[in-house]
Write a structure and sequence with these properties.
Blueprint: H1 22-31, H2 40-55, E1 58-63, H3 69-77, E2 84-88, H4 91-113, E3 119-121, H5 131-134, H6 163-175, H7 192-196, H8 218-228, E4 231-235, H9 236-244, E5 255-258, H10 264-271, E6 274-276, H11 278-288, H12 294-312, E7 317-318, H13 325-345, H14 355-377, E8 382-388, E9 396-402, H15 406-412, E10 418-423, H16 433-438, E11 461-462, E12 466-472, H17 477-480, E13 481-485, H18 499-512, E14 516-519, H19 523-536, E15 541-543, H20 549-558, E16 563-566, E17 583-586, H21 597-608, H22 613-630, E18 641-645, H23 649-652, H24 656-662, E19 668-670, H25 673-685
Helix pairs in contact: 1-3, 1-4, 2-3, 3-4, 9-10, 11-12, 11-14, 12-13, 13-14, 18-25, 21-22, 22-24
Length: about 675
């Protein structure tokens, strides 16, 4: 099968059907929606993807909010022979594709293709019910591992009246009816403790051939469906694991579409990250104690105690000079004990009478052993740090992560497939090169991003194996929104919300009468802002953390005069079109904090080579976060409002201030407070 090959549906011999194009399918899909019509950027994006597949060239597409990029990439995907994989960063978008976009698209294009396209969703193994674990669920104790030995008793679930017992019984009842075993289909859902008892992480699975319940495995069935579908929808986390596992999870394919591509590098970093905790070592000792000699099991328990002691006196933060002596000794004990344990267990044979228990123990030991070896190597390509929770749960951990994943992406993302990466925020400072480097694309490739307004000039820019284009947005940003920078405020210094910034916020919110989404750099600042407005206004003030996020967003939409204040998770994914959100306030530029270990290490590495770590690392991170936050304002063609940034550096900082502004939609720009207040007052009366 040649990359980019398209298929033609064979009609009866007398009238061979003309091969459909991406434009044909897009027209059919949009035409099936009452009042629907294609948008210039949407059409250009679909045709560019079709061309990229034929020419076997990777493509970066910036598609602003309102472009309709889902249909723009799904329609050309249907022309590719074999499965096409679509990866998303959020569960919300994954759900939207599978539950809404793809069913509608399949109905609309069936007459054009002469058949109904198929699609499937592919999730990590732990999202599916494990029959092997379910079979033991009513006889095992509610611990972190189902297969730990426990004293026999009438019930291990605290009785049928217990919450956990009720949830397990409900899962057992659901298991008799479900066809997919997908956790998302269990309604109402169950908590994480209950689901852990009936699901199997990938590392713990002995494999279909060795598992006595392999023929009934829901996770394996999902992979079979994925191999047979036209379009497979997955997520960045599983895609990252697939790359690190030599691409043996996601079915073979010729086209990969990465939506929300600005998130991919971080997800790969997370997948490549590992940690050691005393609790994990203790769990390993419990899981393997019936499989190991007493002295080996005891050495694991001693290693856990040693790690507890080693972490006790070390402050949280990056380890810049290697492992401290006590911590080094603890990690060495863990490596030695886990290696001895793995040698004792050995290979798991196909006729092993207890393959699941052995695989769980072996996987746990192997993960700890690999992490310990990685920490002991103290590679210049890794970053290590100590984490200590401030939530009161006593969590202590030593963590290791790659300094960069660009090399991993370069070697494992692009081979033997065409990759289309798209997002509303792929250009930084008006150029693609920063994001391209982060995604592992070769240097010296196309950098300028053709600006696109209502009639975008989205001519692709070609380079070394990849092409970039900006198809713009249907929104008229200069007429729909104002970007106001409070340049008269002093440069923010201390954490929290400065008094002058609080007064500025109060004036803006009062001018509009609520309808404000406040995006803050810290929980302290969000809380201070809420206290200020609650004390001096009668407006309903909603604060992240006081209720669940879905409930807060629903109340924000329904209560017209309300304000919603929160931190980083509100900066993306909140979609509130209409007049419920006409003011977005950002308290300060979202640079990474100095105590973020990875960002600090990456900046230091750039500094060490004579570059500027701040410019190369911190500024791009802030640019993406800022663009995501600003993007909460205009969500439809009828929206109007103001983005107010209470950080004067966006106007006054030489160099990076202009870079950050050029990374944002082209709002009408002002630093005059009276202009912003006047616009908000007019909106309040409209």
């Amino acid at each position: 099968m040649v990359p980019g090959t398209v298929f033609a549906v064979t009609a009866p011999a007398k009238s061979r059907r003309k091969r459909a194009s991406a434009k044909d399918l897009l027209t059919a899909a949009v035409g099936a929606v009452p009042g629907g019509s294609t948008r210039p950027g949407q059409e250009q994006m679909a045709e560019a993807i079709e061309r990229a597949v034929k020419e076997r060239e990777h493509l970066l597409v910036q598609a602003g909010t309102g472009t309709g990029k889902s249909l723009a990439y799904l329609t050309p995907a249907l022309l590719v022979d074999g499965p096409v994989v679509v990866s998303t960063a959020t569960l919300a978008l994954q759900h939207q594709l599978v539950e809404r976009d793809l069913p509608r698209l399949a109905d609309a294009v069936e007459p054009v293709l002469g058949r109904r396209p198929t699609f499937a969703v592919l999730k990590g193994r732990h999202h599916y019910l494990c029959v092997a674990k379910l079979e033991h669920a009513d006889e095992e104790a509610p611990t972190d591992t189902l297969f730990d030995d426990a004293p026999p008793r009438a019930t291990q679930w605290l009785g049928e009246a217990g919450k956990l017992g009720k949830q397990i019984l409900r899962i057992q009842s659901w298991a008799e009816k479900t066809e997919t075993g997908d956790r998302d289909e269990l309604d109402p859902g169950v908590d994480e403790t209950a689901w852990r008892q009936v699901s199997m992480p990938s590392r713990d699975c002995p494999g279909v051939a060795r598992c006595p319940y392999g023929a009934d495995c829901f996770a394996e069935a999902s992979r079979v469906r994925a191999r047979e579908a036209d379009i497979v929808v997955t997520n960045h986390s599983l895609l990252a694991v697939d790359m690190l596992a030599e691409r043996n999870i996601v079915p073979p394919h010729k086209l990969l579409i990465v939506d929300e591509a600005h998130e991919l590098a971080d997800r790969v970093s997370s997948a490549a990250q590992a940690e050691l905790t005393p609790e994990a070592v203790e769990r390993a000792a419990k899981r393997s104690r019936t499989l190991l000699p007493q002295d080996v099991a005891d050495s694991l328990a001693e290693a856990a105690d040693s790690l507890t002691v080693g972490l006790a006196d070390i402050p949280a933060g990056r380890l810049t000079t290697g492992l401290p002596p006590h911590l080094h000794q603890a990690v060495l004990l863990i490596e030695t004990a886990t290696r001895r344990g793995l040698e004792t267990i050995g290979d798991i044979k196909s006729d092993d009478p207890d393959p699941v228990r052995k695989q769980q123990a072996k996987a746990t030991l192997d993960e700890l052993s690999t992490t310990a070896q990685r920490l002991l190597e103290e590679s210049e390509f890794d970053v290590a740090w100590v984490e200590k929770s401030d939530l009161g749960n006593g969590r202590r951990a030593i963590v290791v992560a790659p300094l960069s994943v660009a090399g991993t992406l370069a070697s494992r993302l692009y081979d033997e497939r065409t990759v289309v990466a798209t997002s509303a925020t792929l250009t930084l400072g008006g150029r693609f090169d920063t994001v391209a480097r982060a995604l592992g694309l070769p240097a010296g490739s196309p950098a300028p991003a053709p600006r696109a307004g209502l009639t975008p000039d989205a001519t692709p820019v070609s380079g070394d194996g990849w092409t970039s284009m900006d198809v713009g947005s249907p929104f008229d940003y200069p007429k729909q929104g104002i970007l106001y920078v409070a340049s008269h405020l002093p440069r923010p210094a201390a954490s929290g919300l400065p008094d002058q910034a609080g007064e500025e916020l109060l004036k803006l919110v009062e001018a509009l009468g609520g309808r404000t989404l406040g995006l803050f750099s810290s929980r302290k600042a969000a809380t201070q802002a809420a206290e200020l407005l609650r004390a001096r206004t009668d407006l309903p003030i909603l604060v992240q953390g006081e209720e669940t996020l879905p409930i807060l967003v629903r109340k924000f939409k329904e209560q017209k005069e309300s304000c919603l204040f929160g931190v980083m998770s509100l900066w993306q994914g909140v979609d509130v079109p209409g007049d419920a959100c006409q003011l977005v306030v950002i308290d300060r530029l979202p640079f990474p904090r100095p105590d973020e270990p990875l960002a600090a290490a990456r900046a230091a590495a750039v500094d060490a080579t004579g570059g500027s770590g701040f410019s190369a690392v911190s500024v791009p991170i802030a640019a993406i976060r800022l663009a995501q936050g600003v993007g909460r304002l205009i969500r439809s063609t009828g929206d109007k409002g103001v983005v107010a940034v209470l950080d004067s550096r966006l106007e006054t900082a030489r160099g990076y201030g202009a870079f950050l502004r050029n990374s944002l939609p082209p709002f009408w720009y002002t630093t005059r407070q009276e202009v912003a207040l006047g616009a908000l007052q007019r909106l309040a009366k409209s």
